[in-house]
Design a protein that fits this description.
The structure is a homodimer of 423-residue chains. Chain A contains 14 helices and 18 strands. With 423 residues, chain A is of the alpha/beta class.
Chain lengths: 423, 423
């Protein structure tokens, strides 16, 4: 058991109030939240929070972790050139070992940003699972089925297998996007959703061009198309969700589909700004993702939270738009629910001990005026003092506890990057 | 003398090439830049950079440091309410002691973000100077004269006095803005600029409303008005510079006026996006500021650099717009030149030793593909390993060396904040 005491608890149970000062964990779970209580059990470690904030970890609800190898290799170029000349030809050279190497670099960065789970879409999932289990990181993988897959039924086998592989690992039904997946294959995904009564996730409405081309092809927006295929019968999510019509948003609302937005990536690739305020007004579920490091390039939920809010202020021409505290909910509770991690959303007894400590003794949190606004508008990786997943401390005071030396992880990733670039 | 070795030097001398691996300082100056050389003098300290990047510190070219007391106290509200209900009434209660207390919090945050000098506009400059000298921080103050000053000629006395007070302190002629300063008073500033042959700085063209009202009042844009008053005969700068016409930009170009842009503040207050690409094309001098912590709320040049670039990609609908490396130049060399700190712009022999160490052993810099793009697109405070000003190390490995305990600085700032809020 581990005891955290003398802190400020941001439980996220009912919004963003700060209450209580003590949390106990046992194994992978939170077993007590509240004020000092006696008698106390014997703890293997007691951590004096010294006024720091203990809160649920951030949930990175859309990413492509292994793309760290492309970080800062293809910046400042047009989208098509980026995709067809930089990204695709290099991804063709990927191996399982390379994905394993690159994913570990991403996991380290998640830990520095207080991210305790991610929702990942990529290839070589066995290698990716190995990297996560070795580090102790929590991941939910998303099916990325498309027309290039030799056998679409692999999706069902992956769904069944990966959901049973390890407590830290999950898998959700998904496909890459309507523009890379045939109607037949999307109908097959819908049939699986029906069979298992589960949600479906896909890239949707990321760019104007994509939505225009969908309308030309099908006479429907991407969302209308997915709805017509009955893909969202058990909910799900649309990654990006930038170009949504009123009718699209009504479908999201009616079906309980989450809009999983990626402001950093959408800015850097000049895609646009998702209509977050409109979706908030319609009570649509919202979550935040970094997208992959090739297009962001950081994997930093502080930057994403900040962007979600200020881009709404800009696009609505209203400095009061998009309350920062709503954004904090998106990044924690919203993300957990979008990914189906209902045991990882809040600090409550019985929940998974996926928690972070925010250092209030750093100048960007001083003076202490309004902690939750401060987290969103001036918080940074510099404030992440500790990251715990399933009751295990994986990151503390700048050091990593992920089963091997970080310099070995870096060396492996650099070697594989060189091999792919030169090979 | 201090020796840095075994690093990567980003000198910023001719753009952003990485060359050499060794820098020596003596007193406040850089005395050697290049490869290993013998014989070596005796050093008081030798720092193994272990592959990390040594580069000039960032220059925060527009801020209001003491506004830390308002950080996170007035977020998510309309601009007018923010200014008239939250900011102005509280600023009226400020004292010199309070400004001293609040400025030190800002200085600590600058150090965590690798900022080695700022260009500050506020009140109680004697108290501000004291805070900077005690910490060892470099500051250039900007005159903030306006109609509320009892005696406009104080500007000249401040200009003369503060430029002689200490090697770390500078002062430039300036006034708050055309909308708070009468024609008479602006003409007086122009006469001082003429007398001393020096540049003039002011807030200009921050919001659409401000520029429209100026046109109504004077039949001219703010820039045209300032030009007609001959204020820019020796150059200067416009803080914000969001709403500039082609003709305004031509005046900037012709007069050597710097556009000192503040993307974070302009987003949060829903003001807009400065036309950075257009100004780059016209070869206008560009620099970056955080603006004050009431409107940003962080004092973080990594966030500002990132925003400068990605907001251009968004507003130009072109992912190749605004090369990240140009932004790195704005944040270092551009800022130094805008503020008149010509001895603090690059890593070269004879320049001031205002330098930072960027930690490459953090996951957001891995794998090592393209260091300068990486700094702009995924760099963060987490990468600042050391900040040196005038040859003194003020921040290293998360710890501050500013003459007093940071907890004492925090306690004083919190006490003054409570006094102002409750008083």
């Amino acid at each position: 058991m581990i005891r955290f005491y003398n802190g400020r608890l941001l439980t996220m149970v009912n919004g963003v109030a700060i209450t209580g000062d003590e949390v106990w964990t046992d194994g992978d779970k939170i077993v007590y939240v509240g004020p000092y209580r006696s008698p106390m059990p014997s703890f293997e470690r007691e951590i004096n929070l010294d006024g720091n904030v203990l809160m649920p970890g951030f949930k990175n609800a859309h990413t492509h972790s292994a793309m760290t190898f492309l970080r800062s290799l293809a910046d400042d170029m047009p989208l098509q050139e980026w995709l067809y000349e930089q990204v695709f030809p290099r991804e063709e050279k990927l191996t399982a070992e390379a994905v394993y190497a690159f994913s570990k670099v991403a996991i380290l960065e998640y830990l520095t940003s207080g991210i305790t789970a991610n929702f990942d879409m990529y290839f070589f999932y066995d290698a990716f699972v190995k990297a996560n289990i070795e580090c102790g990181f929590r991941t939910v993988m998303c099916g990325s089925m498309n027309n290039f897959d030799p056998d679409p039924t692999q999706l069902e086998r992956d769904f069944v297998r990966f959901n049973q592989v390890h407590p830290l690992i999950g898998y959700r039904l998904g496909f890459h996007a309507e523009y890379t997946t045939s109607l037949d294959r999307m109908e097959y995904v819908a049939s699986l959703a029906d069979q298992y009564k589960v949600p479906v996730y896909t890239h949707s409405s990321e760019t104007r061009r994509e939505t225009e081309e969908c309308k030309k092809r099908y006479g429907k927006t991407p969302t209308e198309l997915l709805e017509s295929l009955n893909l969202f019968r058990y909910g799900g999510g649309g990654f990006h969700s930038v170009y949504l019509t009123e009718s699209d948003m009504d479908i999201y609302q009616k079906r309980g589909v989450f809009a999983i937005i990626n402001p950093g990536s959408n800015l850097k690739l000049a895609s646009g700004i998702a209509p977050v305020c409109k979706m908030m007004n319609k009570n649509i579920g919202l979550a935040i993702g970094t997208d992959g490091p090739a297009s962001n390039n950081a994997l930093d939920m502080f930057r994403e939270m900040y962007l979600v809010s200020v881009l709404q202020k800009l696009s609505n021409q209203d400095a009061s738009a998009c309350n920062g505290e709503k954004v904090l909910e998106m990044a924690t509770v919203g993300g957990a629910r979008a990914m189906g991690l209902h045991e990882c959303d809040t600090l409550q007894e019985g929940k998974q001990a996926d928690m972070i400590v925010i250092d209030m003794h750093r100048p960007n949190m001083q003076p202490i005026n309004h902690i939750t606004k401060n987290l969103v508008y001036s918080g940074s990786k510099d404030n992440v003092k500790l990251t715990m997943i399933a009751g295990k401390i994986l990151y503390e005071d700048g050091k990593f506890y992920v089963g091997e030396k970080v310099e070995d992880i870096y060396a492996r990733a650099n070697a594989w990057t060189r091999k792919i670039m030169e090979g």
